[in-house]
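User: I need a structural model of Glyoxalase/bleomycin resistance/dioxygenase family protein from Marilutibacter spongiae for a docking pre-check later this week. Nothing fancy, just the predicted structure tokens so I can convert them on my end. Input:
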Amino acid sequence: MSGPASAGLFIYAKDLERLASFYQTLLGMSRAHAAPGLVVLRSPDLQITVNAMPAHIAAQVDISSPPVKRDNAAYKFFFTVPSLQQASQTASALGGEVLPEQWSGPGFIVCNAVDPEGNIFQVRESVP
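Assistant: Understood. Predicted structure tokens for Glyoxalase/bleomycin resistance/dioxygenase family protein:
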């Protein structure tokens, strides 16, 4: 991908490096840029900008292991992965989780997942 991304999202992280590495590895993204308090990840479809939470906010956020699911967000993003089974193994090794319940849609199977800080998102596997 050259030039600015056409789609992306911002994620605020208590542990910037851990969360950036989680998404980079799980989703096979490349690290396009890093600066103090910021990591930019890219894939052909999406850019994720992981920002460090301001210190006064991070001090009020407790991250447990396993993380407590933050399921009260107004919206949830999804990523297509080559294999839900592989995504589950990778997420688990990186401190997250792909939840076992699956739903089917036209051309895909989807599961909810949790990153190491408790953020809920979905992973989808394409099916014929």
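Before docking, keep this in mind: The CA atoms of residues 14 and 54 lie 9 Å apart.
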